[in-house]
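Lab notebook, page 48
Experiment: co-folding of the full assembly
Goal: obtain a model of how the components sit together before planning crosslinking
Operator: M.T.
Materials (sequences as entered):
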Amino acid sequence: MARWARYVSAMPSASSRLPDRFENWFAGRGWAPRAHQLEMVEAAKAGEHALLIAPTGGGKTLGGFLPSLIDLEALSGQKQRPHRLHTLYISPLKALSVDVARNLTAPVEEMGLDLRIETRTGDTSQSKRQRQRAHPPDILLTTPEQLSLFCATANAAVFFADLKRIIIDEAHALAPQKRGDLLSLALATLSVWAPSAQRVGLSATVADEQGLARWLAPQTHEDQFARIVRGDTGARPEVEILDPSERIPWAGHSGQHAMAEIYHRLKAARMCLVFVNTRAQAEMVFQALWTMNEDNLPIALHHGSLSPEQRRKVEAAMAKGSIKAVVCTSTLDLGIDWGDVDLVIQLGAPKGSSRLIQRLGRANHRLDATSRALLVPTNRFEHLECAAARDAVADNVLDGDPLQAGALDVLAQHVMGRGCGEAFDPETLFDEVRSAAPYACLEREAFDRVVEFTATGGYALNSYERFRRLVKTREGGYRARNPQIAQRHRLNVGTIVEAPMLDVVISSRGRGGHRLGQVEEWFVEQLVPGDTFLFAGQVLRFEGLEEMSARVTRTRDAEPKIPSYQGGKFPYSTYLAKQVRAMVQNPNAWAGLPDQVQDWLQLQSEKSRLPQADGLLVETFPRAAKYYLVCYPFEGRLAHQTLGMLITRRLERMRMRPMGFVANEYTLAVWGLKDMSGLDFDALFAEDMMGDDLDSWLAESDLMKRTFRNCAVIAGLIERRFPGQEKTGRQVTFSTDLIYNVLREHEPDHVLLQSAWADAAAGLLDIRRLGQALSRIAGKIVHQPLSRISPLAVPVMLEVGKEPVYGEAQESILEDASDALVAEAYGEISA
Amino acid sequence: MDRYVFSFTLVGTPALADADGVLVLPDHQTLIVSDLHFEKGSAFARSGQMLPPYDTRTTLRRLGEAIEAHRPDRVIALGDSFHDMWADERMDERDRAALKTLVGGIDHWVWIEGNHDPQPPEDLGGEILFEFKLGGLVFRHEPLEGVAPGEIAGHLHPCAKVRGRGRSVRRRCFATDGTRLIMPAFGAYTGGLNIRDDAFSACFGRTPDALVMGRDAVHVIAAKQCVPDRPRLRA
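Observation: model returned without errors.
Model output:
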């Protein structure tokens, strides 16, 4: 109840366009429907697809369901009516489906509507699934993956035949992902089975409204758009940047210097969310806050690696208001508003204005109240990024890349799925696929290659004809060869390829114990029994592995020996990057920055020079018997890493003997044994490095192999690993590396390599962004030779030694380990 | 192209371990290669996983290069040359022809029988044997448990894992203690077994030392430097 009250605040009654039962229900609570909710009813009456864009707390969910409830009310009087599926609700989060189901039940019961509302997620039992197939509910709440599973079963068309509405929650979060591609294909299939079903998208405010409206609507030969309905925007958040009394660190992300201030602020708040960027950071901040928690404030931790039970506990405490602060990662970005949060703290770089606005929206879920936010930069460069983000919030500038064309590996999965129910006709399926917005421009040739890939692997050698996974029916359709192949496909549905994870199980001694959460297998593999690390807010001692779990015990050590594993390190947005570049070059824009940061920039202009927004500053200087090259593209860590790889290859060819490089969000530093100040920098940074150099690096890049593995799993070339299977994740990775090498050697244009390449360009290698940067700076490189390190170079130089050094690392590890004495004992090495 | 090799002696016989995964006995003009696993890719395809069908081709190319570099009079394929009994019929005609040419160019080609290929195809040329002896050395597919001086075997696909600089590297290797040797698997799709596995100590009485196949060198890494894949719970 309380939740709906927050969704619908009292407003003067606008009109009486709703049926009596609804008018009475609103009136009975002293409420009135909001304008956008009425507009949603209107759009539904007009038979239009609609995209409702409103900030959290704007009554979005009710706006989405109201037309369905009105429709169903008309039916609900009838005795013995057959229940048919009327509305399908799809959300990215399982928990959100469950939550919405619960919150929908209240008004439905209060209005006395005779409806059946059910959820279907990965946790739903087999018997309930079967019952739902036989006796569908009126409203089914589910996830994109469950819908794709439906698409891959027989008789699904009948199940959906009477479907009237499809509501897609958090559409802005789904659309840019591969999950969005898969959902969009499943929606296209639904449109064939239930041609009159209306689509409804619910979205937070987004930069590319038209793109999302197009994503939602079924496409024809011309672009189609859903009707955009806007909710109230609500009050602007008040954003403050912490100007600490302590010294602001040059580098690092601990935020240690600001912890006392953060503690002070959250103590004064009713309830506070402390957002951080990585799980490692969450663990560290949580630990730091507890060390100073003299008041014994209830402070909790929430991130994706903790066990679901642990997370549910924290969420319940938030809902009850029995908690003071939660240190969290993106796990609390979306969906449910758990409690009465009145302060949001963002520790570390905000990374993007849309992301920041979403996080700020977690405070004060009432539109009339201003939400308060505190940004806490953890180092000097982050002060610039935070200032840019604060301005963006004030001007309500949203960022985010435009939606991309759909991924081919996802299409392959969908095509296989469509062959697992009834047979499909390629002609008809091609039209169906093109009605999904991400695939509207798909060429027939590409589609045919994907179908062939699905059926036989699609290799030029054409040797797998007799092992086809999809066989031709007498009518010319395609169908899975046998039920086993179809079943195996269903086990592999979905686009989320997780790094192999291991349970972390704590016990005092030997057997038993309980699960704290999960960590990446690769992290555990670095540990030796006896090592200590930080997890779930405590220092744990690693005892060893048992089956699929890492056994740990508590320890009294205050300091973990092994630094925490890193979480996602996605780069800051191109929009913020542009703003930061503009700010750095212009002393007039520094006014809002702390004195320490202003002094630092001032010093840079005296000792070296300021990087210019449309060019690239390159500094060279000697230090401790090595020579350094430091440049400032401000393009994010991933693009800088790729740049570092390519530059060191070039330097090697120029016989400059480079030894390594380190990159952060703003800077790249390369070092070697020879003075680089005499180089032709226009040549060194020339765009043609994106050709052969890139190509030869990709042949051995670990990041590329990881990207390929994900594509191979999604496309169904490699099967997912399930608990209890004896293969370890390491072995799966190993074998996809072998496949990558062989495929690259013999068929570099294969559809799967094409797909991996497209992913790498936008993902881990950020090649697209690097390409844009290189063309931006071409001909505008400014070289500043120095006798010593510059002020702006200090942060990245401090990371040398802390960050992994790239380059010849793998071979070097082998060289380090090789034993001259043993070699001597056996013989000798010669070339 | 430079060949990166490690020269040593195995029970008195000079040997070269090549970074590409073949062993050469210069005194006998003999090249040894193990676990080629031809047509492993198509074996997966048969069960519905359409792995790229080019593993045989890649394996053949690399083997051809190694033979070209060392020009041996004798080649011993140490078993599991074919992934299964039907590998021969699945093999692409061109690959088959290339293999035949390769075998035909060698004076004495020996196919040792493996558990995957107890009956290697007969029409490719070469001699099919269960075991082969040469000087003080004996060649068989599966290594014997216990002491076996002079034995050169395959079957186990040894891999060594080494940790350093905050990361780890896992590579194929030759496993040896100076008295006997287990060959790395050569096939393009073959995985590996960590030399810390019990299967190796059953043969060597301890974890063997590793001659690790690096990108452009053979690294000699002592057993104590090699770590298991997964740190096990102490019993």
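Interpretation: Chain B touches chain A through 60 residues (CB under 8 Å).
Next step: discuss with group before ordering constructs.
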